[in-house]
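yo

u said u wanted the structure for the complex thing, so here. seqs first:
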Amino acid sequence: MSDDLSPTDVQAQLDANAADTMTRIFAHTVAAFGTEAVKQALLPRLLAGGIPFCLLYSEPGAGSDLASVRTRAERAEGGWRITGQKVWTSGAQTAEFGLLLARTDWDAPKHKGLSAFLTPMRQAGVDVRPLCQITGERHFNEVFIDGALVPADHLLGQVNEGWKVLQSALGYERVGMGAGASERRPGSVGDNRVDLIALAHGRGRLADPLIRHQLAQAIAWRQLNALNMDRARAEITASGASSLPSLGKLAMSRILHGDARVMTAILGAASLLDGPEQPDAEDANYRALHAYMTSIGGGTDQIQRNIIAERILGLPREHEADRELPFRESRAVIG
Amino acid sequence: MSDDLSPTDVQAQLDANAADTMTRIFAHTVAAFGTEAVKQALLPRLLAGGIPFCLLYSEPGAGSDLASVRTRAERAEGGWRITGQKVWTSGAQTAEFGLLLARTDWDAPKHKGLSAFLTPMRQAGVDVRPLCQITGERHFNEVFIDGALVPADHLLGQVNEGWKVLQSALGYERVGMGAGASERRPGSVGDNRVDLIALAHGRGRLADPLIRHQLAQAIAWRQLNALNMDRARAEITASGASSLPSLGKLAMSRILHGDARVMTAILGAASLLDGPEQPDAEDANYRALHAYMTSIGGGTDQIQRNIIAERILGLPREHEADRELPFRESRAVIG
Amino acid sequence: MTANPVGAPIDHEDQAAIRESFRRLLADHGSEVAVRRASESDTGYDTGLWRRISALGLAALAAPVEHGGAGAGPVLIESLMEAAGAALLCAPLLSSGVLAAGLLANSADEAAKARLLPPIASGERLATVALTGERGLWTPDDVTVVAVRSGDAWRLDGVAAFVTHGAQADLLLVVARAEGDLQTFEVAADAAGMRRESLKTFDRTQPMARITFEGAPASLIAGAGAHALERTLDLARVALAGEQAGGARRVFDVTIDYLKTRIQFGRPIGGFQALKHMAADLLVEVESAASAARGAAEALEDGSAEAEALVNLAAFACADAFSQVAAASVQMHGGIAFTWDHPAHLYLRRARADAELLGGSDHYRERYLSALEAAHV
Amino acid sequence: MTANPVGAPIDHEDQAAIRESFRRLLADHGSEVAVRRASESDTGYDTGLWRRISALGLAALAAPVEHGGAGAGPVLIESLMEAAGAALLCAPLLSSGVLAAGLLANSADEAAKARLLPPIASGERLATVALTGERGLWTPDDVTVVAVRSGDAWRLDGVAAFVTHGAQADLLLVVARAEGDLQTFEVAADAAGMRRESLKTFDRTQPMARITFEGAPASLIAGAGAHALERTLDLARVALAGEQAGGARRVFDVTIDYLKTRIQFGRPIGGFQALKHMAADLLVEVESAASAARGAAEALEDGSAEAEALVNLAAFACADAFSQVAAASVQMHGGIAFTWDHPAHLYLRRARADAELLGGSDHYRERYLSALEAAHV
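structre next:
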């Protein structure tokens, strides 16, 4: 049955289950690239949001330049053996599977020697270590992988075509971030939208013309992005495609940094303080740091601008000295 | 006598004569690169500001990429014959000489086949046509050159080393622009510094908090640049060198665009109008357009940022595909 | 409430056909050459093009079909103005077609509509609205013309400034304070006691006048007070936002094309990251402006509770976007755009002018925040 | 006037030697590891480093040499604070060395100077100034502690907030309203009727306290009223501007180094134009901050008429520069700077804190413009 599911079908079921961004990334990826066996086994649970997942893309040496990953996958009895180090992995402790990008051909150019794997996380050879972020949270992890086994039918897509799988998965991730994912310290009340006006009012700053100016602009940025996303949905309904979702993550970055700036302006000296006894200050300070999750994570603003300029506007690609070199000769390997 | 003049001597005489930027560019260039004959003949008049000059660098196909000039200089009886087209030449009608960059070797890489010439402007073969700018002024010209003669001893520097001469001349030009050259419509009264506070006061806008905020920031940018230039002078006095003057042109671009923005904000709807009966509006509108003289002319802001990043900060050079190609094989020639 | 005083909405296919005809007309007759010629002409607008627009039935854009108008609601008006902005239309579509026709349509004066709208629609009479005073705020507070009644007749005194096509108009609708309230008056072009002074404008595609009234005779348009005026201004705000969104997109497209073809350093300059990143940021502005203008038009057409906030949002977001994109366009082109003959400065001039017309961005940001506060309570 | 109450200026070579000793001390003992350890310690500052600074004779930076102070004027203080900012110094140099020592030096109370400055200078007693109220404006208006006299004795009531090193101080100089005027009072650390509440701060290198006075006994410092306070605050503004300029330059240098060594896409990321251009723009900010801080210090030292404008300029220009550079630094580093173990966020935290300490940028922009207006008339 599962092989009959189109992306639209997947989308519909995810919508019906109010799936979170992570589940969407995985469900779409498995539906599009999983083997029949994996789809049969996992897709129903996946669509219902029942499988904890994590993303194993980034490495210390492969951030913006994801195609330079050096984690290796080698054929072994029963499948593939994986060895390498990943970073920025959220949910690695609880994940049942990781969507992992590894190099399978070191003689091919960097983009052409990668494969994607659905890696079982609960095995020896997978060591998860929490990474403390600037917010003080430990949302992300480093994952050290030493000879972990991936069954042969857990390959996603074709061997050496992992870049395509990654691009598809990243697309879903970025759209999720553009719509405005979690902005607030976990456990805080209220929805994800800051009520800036209420904060200014509560702090007696709502009559200050400079505050009013910043408030209006910050709220405008958010509403403009929402209007763009409304148009995106209408365009997709009408014609099946829209370039607008690609703008969302970049726009959201400005929105989140902007919100933090306005909140800080409203608070003034009170933003010097922190901690649960100063919830407004803690919120503003947290947001000022957490906004980098969107402006750096999932592809920096700079990478996003490249993507928009190249894919939507058709401007020439960035010159990449090692794009066509065999990977083992690239600076990612030889330094 | 003239060959004894060091750059410091030249500077001192120029300072004593309160020479303008154009005279400074020429005097330094001739003193550093002129033949003995030319220095003997011209330097005294030059230092006194007595020779009208123009700059013949840019071409329609060589703007930011000045090294791609296609004006050609060929050896001929008595010197060199020049053929080509130049643009953005101010003062070409009245100039006695033009500092001209032409290609003398088409088989060398682009930077290595250029020579600089002191070109007599008052001759057949030099056709000056005014170019109307967005301000409506005709400050600049196109110069069409068809077989004009340059005497052999009017070569500046060595053959095929014109790029070095140009870099030296551009340095003096940019420092001049960074110190804030003419900002105002010619013929208007007052000095070059806008009195923004007086404008706001006169227009009854000085109590508006948003106007006050913009005013303070605009004036601050100007004063910060002045403080940087004070430090530059002190550093040069103390150690003979300073990287600070290189920042001036980029800073001045922000200052001038910023001034125009504040003036427009102060005027509001009055900026819809123009013409001598609306001198404030005419001034604001003129500045809004004329600011591009600094952000584009003499090397765009983008080129300035490259220069600062590469020469001051030591960041890697921009990749330039045709840098080492024989010029006749570059895209500037073959398209 | 609905802001559409023109009767039954035009169906989608007809709207699409109208948009297509208008775009074709501008493509055929609204070239840059035509814009430059018209802006330097005595009339200050393209009279030939205006006749063609009238022939297409679009001169009285905001007026009901029964009086010869186009019967266009906010959505259609916004989309047509996007095309007008893209082409730098040099014609009184906003003055006569939206402001004057809209104010009449929003009035309660059926006789005035029947008498005045048909010649506006046919292009026979160019109309405009004289509203703001010397401060140029386009707010009720800034109306400085006073109307005094003597018997059945009215006379006007005071000054109206920044009147678009004010010197060219055959018919002036003048907003004045009459016995404490705002009212609208019809004043003939040849009325005694009226002096029209053509103003030199920075954007030469939008002529303006300052009009002085000294006991000028005027006729009251019934039921065209503060409420009708505000509805008409909302329509004009959406129209202007559309013009700005359209202008921003066109000057952006022109710039992107240049980035792809201009070669420096051996490659198209659009391959340089500095310009690529500027372009990406500008695309966000261009798309946001389109979304804002269209969102405001839809909300106004639907009479949505969000309309007030969205109209004010569009007013400053589109103004800022057009200003920013037009300014960046000059910078990204480099020297070529510093020449008079290059179109970039025409967009820059229009962007600067549009950013002040009907009130500046700071004014609308404040109105937007106030609307949000009101919704909040 | 001259803002230097410390007697004869130190000559240039001695100043250079002091700067060099201080820089070496910070290089040897003020590493990032030391900063992190100190900021997480019970005292909230590096007590060992503070002892070394005291041994160097710099603890009472702004106090006269005759009382054991460093006798530093604004220029020397500014330059030392640049080094302190670069190293994220985690010690009460501003609180005790500039604010407290400076306020005493600016007072007319020779007995208090002779009694209090030597132990401050030796590092034996940590002093600070309690000044601003809950609004955190550091202005006379915002002083909310009230002093009431009974006979020769004074008692304080009210709250002082955002008191730097307020919980750690052995000696508090409290600015209060006394019979209508501002005056400064000495309060012992163990005074009855005083409650000190250590506050959790976002920048963990700058501990703060909120201090409540309920009839706390206090001694008047003679001649330390509004004028002495304003002179001391000017010195503190220049000191803080120096700290910001120094912090901005260091975090910028760290970033440029990273751009040169981090390889992505086969080359150092500093070769990408987007980052190069960000770096060039930031260099303008870094250099402008240094020029502003030094220019203000010189003007203050010379008693120049421009001093007021320049101090206010430095206050917001340096705050904004440090904030902007520290924020950009995180972005330019990418993921690595999002980790707790990377120093970028320490600078970001300090920059955010420094930008509010002594009053925010908008406040100083307004003061700057007012100073220019006053000079203008």
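Chain C has a mean pLDDT of 96. Residues 35 and 320 of chain C are 23 Å apart (CA to CA).
cya
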